[in-house]
Amino acid sequence: MNRTFSTLLFIFLSFGWTTPLLSEEIRLPDMSDSSGMILSPEQERILGQQLMRQFRRTLKIVDDQEIQAYVQSLGYRLLSHNSDNNGTPFTFFVINDPNINAFAAPGGHIGINTGLIQASQSEDELASVIAHEIAHITQRHLTRSIEKYQKLNIPNIAALIATLILSAQTGNPQLAQAAMMSAQAGALQAQLNFSRAHEYEADRVGMGTLAKAGYDPRGMPQFFERLQNASRYRSNPQEFLSTHPVTTSRIADSRNRAEQYPEKKGANSFDYELIRIKIQLMHENDPSKSIRNFSTLLEQKQYSNESAMRYGYTNALINNGQYKQARAQIKQLLSQDRERIAFIITKAKLDMAEQKYSDAQTELERGLKIYPYNAPLVYALVDTLMKTAGYKKAINLLQKQILHTPDIPELYNLLADAEGKFGHKYKAHEALAEYYYLNGETGSAIEHLKFARKEKNMDFYRASKLEARLKQFESEYAMERSN
Questions:
Q1: Angle at 99 between CA 96 and CA 102, to 5 degrees
Q2: Catalytic one of 44, 97, 124, 133
């Protein structure tokens, strides 16, 4: 089953006919009417916003902003060289899942599993997967597939779609087998897969985007072929191959296309090396084991980038409480590049571990002067300020960052913590309401707005804004609960 198209259908079925924004303001065409038009870009955008809230509620989205920032930067670089994008705003995010997979969803949302990042052996390979998913969206394969199946009985199959989606996400085939007891579900699953033409078109368009963005298009067939070879020794295929079927002819076709472009032999970006090491550390439960591994590789000079390897060694030392050794390592890294965000954050992390909060704050503020509104630096600085009761400064910093990046849930959670400790209880409840809403928990969001409404000294403008937001949440929640 293709996760991309099934996810789109699931969101359309589960929310398109229950959410007031869609049912009242946009009025989607009747899917049983063959004359109905396909989803417009605006309708896709709203579906995508709702979908993202569901992703945050059901998937283990990585909360490390350095990892998220890297994937977003890579995605935007590719997107800037895709001439077919009609202005769709894209969101690239990382899921903490060791399975090798990636998927696209309406509204320009593209999810990448940590397992896929780790499985890639070059940035060209990772970029090729993201370029492929971008092409599925810019070529409107999702909406073109919907147009083919406008006669689907939406209310009757919503539960079946939900079961199939859960099966794909969890890798639990029993869930799918239960759903497949219905002949209707069996017919539906056959309809969910992208056509062969769509996959070939996404390969072709994605390869062109790769070349224009400065990557080697050969990364695409290399990645496909390696996954296919590895899967020959597995009882079950890699998740990516299940959702993006790769045949020998498709690999040959992509390789032939790639050979038409000039070969580009460039080293992986430093950020690519750092992020793969960061994910490796995130998945490692034994810091002492990581220390031994990094130390051995450094001694034997088995690395493609010494600074990236030393970065991993430094963080492993910090995680294991070996601060003196870590101090020597980070000093060496900063002597090589004082403006590298990852090094600045690592230095502050070490300062924090040793309770040198003033030093950490100075280092992070230096970083923000170089990179204003950089989310990883803001997160780290807020953490430092909260340790020293710098609540007011943390609040100001978070409010400015939210204006710049309003759709990051954790920003509101941090703001709620700072407002609460500063004595602004109702503002804390308002921030928590936004946090829960973005995470798909509308009921909890409503409760926090009701707590905030009890504040007696709230000015008229803020009270009116709160009431409007509360009515919106209550309307959406009532429609959700009615089905």
A1: 80
A2: 133
